[in-house]
Design brief:
This protein has 19 helices and six strands. It is mainly alpha-helical and 461 residues long. Helix 8 links the parallel strand 3 and strand 4.
């Protein structure tokens, strides 16, 4: 096949180089975006008189015909044509004749690929943000159902203080809210149109960049042609936001794995989101949660790969940048699949409320409340801390809980203790009294859930 850029060359490209150099095996995914950008470019060429209106109409009709051909499965890409841009131009020329060769007037593959990837990431960011909102709605529903489901809160994976499952879940709601805002920021910066930057220095043709920007719905046009073709910040920013979100997913999935174990038994996963063992018939494995946890490293790898690829590139375009697309596509696919499975897995799991409450009863999760009780009776907190530490030690020695102690046993450690100590260490009381903003009290968490629903309604509108 004669190369579209082959005029200066006297020798065929080596076959191994053809295979190594070609990107059509993966950037074919940008077919729709390439057509959209080309239609807008052709219409602008006709309006500005760079080509005739009739020629522009032929190009636009031909490009739209290629979209129909693709939908009907009639498009065949050629490895020899290297990439999606040259494949589209060849297919168009086969369809409309020599006028197809005018499509590339005033542009380069360098600004063309930047446009295509920006069109792609804009669309996918919106899709991902919608899926994330669906997950947050699931979190809100699950939290609302568990406002009074007491469970142990942990630090260092050691039982610390009693909280509620609703409070625990709303921590993830806040994480996902920050993820949404990061995606929103990334979308804002991706919404800048590079077409018209040419290879690196623009063009002598009188392009109407604003016309193309308006047709494609971009916020503004790039202000520097070198930056227009060499910028990949928008991809790195997306991959960074995706990595942070996958980290949040991984933390949640780690807890799902722990909670579904026989040792915790806090939750039971639905059969539809679990798998069995080929040898052990009793097994019910949390494979979906484990796989999301595992795929987090995959997304991290794409971020580090992109940063490493870009770190030493001089301006402007370099062939290294061809490596950005596989990372982009796989990150998008991984994030979307994770979102599509995580939400229904959470929505379908059964919460074992009594097991959670029993877990909160162990481990002296109300010990801090005993110290607070003493402090409220004017015992210096550091002294109160020491008194309770000795109480806990005695309980451990006797294999008892704080609730098991008689008033006399409490008073043996401090005369300040009175009958009301038993109310102070009741687990539900421990939770309900923590009613400051951000605390686990059911009333406080209910208000937080209401705020979350208001926020969801606002961002969806």
């Amino acid at each position: 096949m004669s190369k579209l850029w082959g005029g200066r060359f006297q020798k065929e490209t080596d076959r191994l180089v053809e295979d190594f150099h070609s990107s059509i095996s993966f950037d074919a995914r940008l077919f729709t975006q390439d057509i959209r950008g080309s239609v807008a470019h052709a219409r602008m060429l006709g309006k500005t008189g760079i080509i005739s209106v009739e020629e522009a109409t032929v190009l636009i009709d031909g490009l739209q015909g290629l979209l129909r051909d693709m939908d009907e499965g009639h498009v065949q890409f050629e490895v020899d044509a290297e990439d999606i841009h040259m494949n589209v131009e060849l297919l168009l020329t086969e369809k409309v004749g020599a006028v197809g060769k005018k499509l590339h007037t005033g542009r380069s593959r360098n600004d063309q690929v930047a446009l295509d990837t920006k069109l792609f990431i804009r669309e996918e960011l919106v899709n991902i943000m919608h899926l994330l909102l669906d997950l947050q709605k699931t979190i809100l529903n699950l939290a609302e159902e568990n406002l009074e489901t007491v469970m142990p809160g942990y630090t260092h994976l050691q039982k610390a203080q009693p909280i509620t499952l609703a409070h625990h879940l709303m921590a993830y709601f806040e994480m996902f809210k920050r993820d949404y805002e990061r995606y929103k920021d990334a979308l804002y910066r991706a919404d800048v149109m590079p077409l018209g930057s040419g290879a690196l220095a623009g063009t002598t043709f009188p392009l109407d960049r604003e016309m193309v920007r308006e047709e494609l719905g971009f916020r503004e046009v790039t202000r520097n042609s070198l930056d227009g073709v060499s910028d990949r910040d928008y991809l790195v920013e997306f991959e960074a936001a995706a990595s942070i979100m996958m980290m949040h997913f991984s933390r949640l999935c780690e807890e799902i794995v722990l909670w579904s174990s026989d040792e915790f038994h806090f939750i039971t996963l639905d059969d539809a989101y679990s798998t069995g063992s080929s040898i052990m018939p009793q097994k019910k494995n949390p494979d979906v949660a484990e796989l999301i946890r595992g795929k987090t490293g995959r997304v991290y790898g794409h971020l580090m790969g992109s940063l490493s690829m870009l770190k030493s590139l001089p301006l402007a375009y370099n062939k290294d940048m061809q490596e950005d697309k596989e990372a982009l596509f796989d990150t998008v696919d991984t994030v979307k699949k994770s979102l599509l499975t995580l939400a229904p897995m959470l929505g379908s799991m059964r919460v074992n409320k009594e097991a959670m409450a029993q877990g909160a009863r162990g481990g002296f999760t109300n010990a801090t409340d005993v110290a607070d009780y003493l402090a409220k009776k004017q015992v210096p907190f550091r002294e109160a801390h020491s008194i309770v530490g000795k109480l806990v030690y005695d309980c451990l020695e006797k294999k008892r809980s704080l609730e098991d102690l008689s008033l006399e046993e409490f008073q043996a450690h401090s005369s300040v203790f009175e009958e009301d100590i038993y109310e102070a260490i009741d687990l539900y009381e421990c939770v309900e009294k923590r009613d400051l903003i951000g605390g686990p009290a059911p009333e406080t968490v209910a208000a937080h859930i209401d705020e979350g629903r208001t926020w969801l309604t606002k961002v969806r509108s």
